[in-house]
Amino acid sequence: xxxxxxxGVLALQGDVREHLIALASADAVARxxxxxxxxxxxxxxxxxxxxxxxxxxxxxxxxxxxxxxxRVAAGMPVYGTCAGMILLADKILDPRSxxxxxxxxxxxxxxxxFGRQNESFEAAVEVDGVPGGPVxxxxxxxPWVESVGARAEVIAVHGGHIVAVRxxxxxxxxxxxxxxxxxxxxxxxxxxxxxxx
Length: 197
Description:
Mean pLDDT: 95
Number of strands: 12
Largest sheet: 7 strands, mixed
Shape: globular
Distance between the termini: 9 Å
Structural class: alpha/beta
Strand content: 25-35%
Strand order of the largest sheet: 2-1-3-4-12-11-10
Order of helices and strands: EHEHEHHEHEEEEEEEEH
Helix content: 25-40%
Radius of gyration: 15 Å
């Protein structure tokens, strides 16, 4: 399999540049995605960290929410980090008024579960399917997963809380691997995308 996947990063808000760099280092063609026609041109998509309520509102404003839902429901590989995890949840435990999700992972997520900005931290996290020992997870106002349904698989736990989940071609982490220089989570996602090309 020599195909190089084209992977977008949803570029409405959040840490887009870091994901583009991490994807490129994991042998993908990485490009920002802001419009439905750009979404149609990618093989997979990263939904970055940022502010989930703002991203949800901007997705509606840019006409992206329904196309995102359709592509994810149709099996497009997608990886959400932090706010991206919240957007991939089928249900948010404590949504802000008007906050919507893309859905795609049978999980219930609690926003800001690990605390506020000044309670951010880094931790080594063992992730099933990622070889080479634990990944360094950066937790910034991070969510955690309260529960998963039968279709979702827990792939990492930290402090007794679910922090990474996979369901089919969708994966989500509470933490930001793009901020560490360790690109193994992105490499895992690139392989997921390559597998469906």
